Amino acid sequence: MRCRPNSWKGFRVAVADDRTQDPGHLDTIRWLWRGYLRPQWKLIAVAFGLMMIEGGSVAVIAWMVGPMFDGVFIGADYAAAVWVGVVVFGAFLARASAGFGQRVAMAQVGQRAIARIQGDLVAHMMSLDNAWFQINPPGTLIERVRGDTQVMATIWAVGLSAAGRDLIMLFALLGVALARDWLLALVAMAAAPLLVLPVTLLQRWVRDVSQRAREAAARVSTRLDEIFHGVTTIKLNTSETRDSERLAREIDALRRAQVRSAAGQAAIPALMDLAAGIGFLGVLTYGGLQIIDGRMTVGELTSFLAATALLFEPLRRLGQVTGQWQAARASLDRLQAVFAERPTIQSPACPRPVSDVARPPDIRFEDVHFAYADLPALDGLTFTAEAGQRTALVGASGAGKSTVFNLLSRLADPQRGQIRLGGVDIATLDLAALRGMFAVVSQDTALFDDPLRENIRFGRPEATEAAIREAVTAAHLDDVVDRLPAGLDSPAGPRGSNLSGGQRQRVAIARAVLRSAPVLLMDEPTSALDAESEAQVQAALDRLSAGRTTLVIAHRLSTVRGADRIIVLDGGRATDQGTHAELLARGGVYADLYRLQFSGTETAARP
After folding, report:
1. Do 321 and 455 fall within a single domain?
2. Tens digit of pLDDT for each residue in 563-583?
3. What span, in angstroms and rounded, lies between the C-alpha atoms of 580 and 595?
4. CB burial string 438-451: b at 16+ within 10 A, e below
5. How far is CA 335 from CA 120, 121, 257, 450, in A?
6. Neighbour order of strands in the sheet with 424-425
7. How far is residue 323 from each of residues 37, 89, 149, 404, 496, measured CA to CA in Å?
8. What is the largest distance, in Å, between two alpha-carbon atoms of the chain?
9. Are the C-beta atoms of 508 and 452 separated by less than 8 Å?
10. What does the alpha-carbon distance between residue 145 and residue 271 come to, in Å, rounded to a whole number?
11. Is the dihedral of CA 52, 53, 54, 58 positive or negative?
12. CB-based contacts of 6: which residues, under 8 Å, 6+ apart?
């Protein structure tokens, strides 16, 4: 059997080594080029060709100012008026056409790259461990995917255009100025070296401020996510004013950071303008003396002034781009920090075939220890859930019940001990194949704002219409579908908001039926339902669990009385196990929990 050298495939844009999360300019540019720009090199080459035409046409216009003044305005040459006019018009036409073409091409390059980065970023995030999502709230991640990638649009719209068009224009116009008078060109550029230190300091400041602005934007997104998801709770607690004020403070912090970033970016071209003013003063003074002495014509000086005036415009834009690049790098650094993350839970290099697992399998926990950071959850847990039977896990909150599900599906790995599925250590199985062994029905059913049909076949997208209908029937969902105007094409609404709690649970059961996995995991599947809905859902669950190894978590002990085996968890250990009648007869934790829930009822008096 051939083994994979590295079970984690990664993504084409992931950071290739363990360098710090503060990569240099060249590292960042190589990352962008290799991952997103190189596949579009032909379109970029066309765009750069058009940029050369656009930049060169400006130099032609500046050069033609000389013959326009000397030949047409001063020399009164009719022929010169025609050919100079035709050349200048042609230059403007070439500039307009090339400028339009390169902007459209670069917009296409940019949007393709941003779309691919967003797709890769989300795919990479989904490969990371659940623990990573516990310290990165949804609003922050949304801002990474949407905000940070959109900030990068400045790189395509401005940065690459500046690198192409403005650099070409700068060198072409500098060539015109040097051809007219090299000494005068040096006078015009005399103040440029004075900009190096202040511009460097400004670039660093802009990057730092932009980083804080992106962090502030993430906090705003997180606050909005919390408000919109918790709007009912906010209303019921009359907390609208307090939450609005909290959001306003976050928005104000974002505003201040963005203003400081914009000020830093604006300062760089302002310094360019100052240098241009100094150079222009020197050119007028020195050039005027040249004309007075007869060593330069009015047309030549005017052509030189046109070239230098136009030259400072691309130089100014390049200065502006350096500020925008620093702001964009703050977002790029945040994106690369995410791509540098690696999942710790991976498939083994040589996974055992899932066919080695018996169907239906038994589930064995053997001296399993697990802690969330420094908080112990399981302390040497050992138990067996027999194949094809229903096993219930009961115990007080914090006893470790949900942790069992997380470890069984390898959303987390134990620090010690082994977990076996059908006699096979789950750590030796391919991760996707392992999770394909489970169908899950939980108390918090995750539905999406898609038609019911898509929600039902979420775990089995290739399912046929007939299979979906069978699942609907098995889940006792027919009456719900029949009452909806569009049937299975009716949208479930955001987070299933168009459905009641019982209806959402039955959709989850239909999804589990359709998945047809050999192991069924149920986490408080009826805890939030009324008596009528609970009866309907319980009937569907009974039908679903037939012939499958079923592991169920329940606080409401009325739902687990019919289990083949009940395992009592306390302090992360299995302290007792047996049938409902056996556990009541022995007394202990289970009997105490049961009597606490049914105190004073006839049921409590009769085991």
Report:
1. no
2. 899 999 988 899 999 998 898
3. 12
4. bbbbbbebebeeee
5. 11, 8, 19, 29
6. 375-385, 363-372, 416-421, 424-425
7. 22, 34, 17, 52, 45
8. 121
9. no
10. 34
11. positive
12. 349
Q: Are residues 412 and 488 in the same domain?
A: no
Strands 390-394 and 549-553: parallel
In the chain, how many domains are there? Answer: 3
The label of the residue with tokens 């009997």 reads 591
Residue 287: name the closest of 274, 304, 273, 312 by CA: 304
Residue 461 near residue 450 (C-beta atoms within 8 A)? no
Closest CA relative to residue 269, chosen from 199, 213, 326: 199
Q: Which residues contact 333 (CB under 8 A, 6 or more apart)?
A: 21, 22, 23, 28, 211
CB 379 within 8 A of CB 366: no
Instruction: Let me know the angle formed at the C-alpha of 542 by 561 and 551, rounded to the nearest 5 degrees.
Output: 65
Q: Do 76 and 217 belong to one domain? A: yes
What are the residues facing 439 on neighbouring strands? Answer: 520
pTM of the entire structure? 0.73
Examine the fold and report which residue of 278, 309, 339 is the final residue of a domain before the chain moves on.
Answer: 339
Question: What is the per-residue pLDDT for 4?
Answer: 54
pLDDT digit string (tens) for 355-401? 888 889 999 999 999 998 778 899 999 999 999 999 999 988 778 88
pLDDT tens digits for range 73-95: 666 677 777 787 788 788 888 88
Strand order across the beta sheet in which 565-570 lies: 438-442, 519-523, 549-553, 390-394, 565-570, 573-578
Structural domain boundaries, residue 500: 445-516
Q: Which pLDDT tens digit goes with each residue over 528-546?
A: 566 776 777 777 777 778 8
- Cα 487 off chain centre by: 33
- Please check whether residue 543 lies inside any domain of the structure: no
